[in-house]
C-alpha cells in the first residue's frame, strides 16, 4: 500500500511518535510535548483579567487571540511561541496567546472560560477587529468562544482561524478510523484527551462546537486541515455546516501531512504554505 504521507512527513512522523508516550499520564505527556522546546526569545506577558497571556506586536489595532493545542492537557505558551511569532510576522497583526487552565486539574469549561475572558480583555485593550485562532484543542476553544460571544452578547469576532480543530467528542467519522494509528496523533490519544477535559460529568455536546444546533451568525471561518488526521472529517463537516448556515467558510486541506504539521515550519513545505495562505486570509479580513 502506498504511504499517504510524503517521505519527509513520514520521517518526521516516525521521529515524533518514537518519543511520545501513549495516553495515560499527563505528566509524561507534558514532558514529551516540551522536549523539543528551544530557548524562547523574550516576550511581553501580562494578566488579562486574571488570565496569563503572552503578547506579540502592537497594543492597538487588529488582534488575534490564540489558543494553543495539546488536548486541553499538554502544551503551553512556550510550545506554541514560534507559531504565534510566525503568524504575527506574516500578517503584521498583534497576537495574544492564552495560557488557559489545563485539564485534568481544571476541566470543561475552565479553558474556554479563560479564552472568553481574554477576548473581552482584548476588545477593551486593542480597539480593532478581533480574531480567534487555535490549533487542535485550541481550535475547539476558539470555536466555542465564537459561539459564546455570539450567544452572550460578547465582543464582535471578525473571523476564526481553526487549525485541525477538535470539534466532535464522538470521534466516529471515517478519518478517526482510517488514521487511528500510524500518523502521530492517534484516535486513542484524542479519546483520552476528551476524557481528561470532560471528566465524569462534563457536558460533551456543549463542549463540541461541531454539534452546536445553530451556526448562523458566526464570523468568517478558515479551517486548515491535514489529510492524514483522525480529526479531518469533523473539520470538513463543520466547515460545510457553517457554509449551509450562511457563514463564509473556507477549507484548506493539505495532503500528505499529519495532525500537528504546522509545527514543522521550514521542514515540511506544506506547513509553510498553510501559514502563508492563512496569513493572506487573515489580512484580507482587515481590508
Describe what you observe in this structure.
This protein is globular. Helix 3 (81-91) crosses helix 9 and helix 4 (110-126) crosses helix 5 (137-151). It is 38% helix and 19% strand. The termini are far apart. The longest helix is centred in the middle third of the chain and has 17 residues, at 110-126. It has helices at 7-18, 26-34, 81-91, 110-126, 137-151, 174-178, 187-198, 232-244, 269-284; strands at 44-48, 51-56, 61-67, 94-98, 127-135, 159-163, 221-228, 249-258. By secondary structure, it is α/β, with parallel strands linked by helices.
Order of helices and strands: HHEEEHEHEHEHHEHEH
Helix content: 25-40%
Strand share of the residues?
A: 15-25%
Please report the total strand number as a whole number: 8
Rg over C-alpha atoms, rounded to the nearest angstrom: 17 Å
Query: Uncertain runs with pLDDT below 50, 5 residues or more?
Result: none
The description of the largest β-sheet is: 8 strands, mixed
Strand order within the widest beta sheet:
1-2-4-3-5-6-7-8
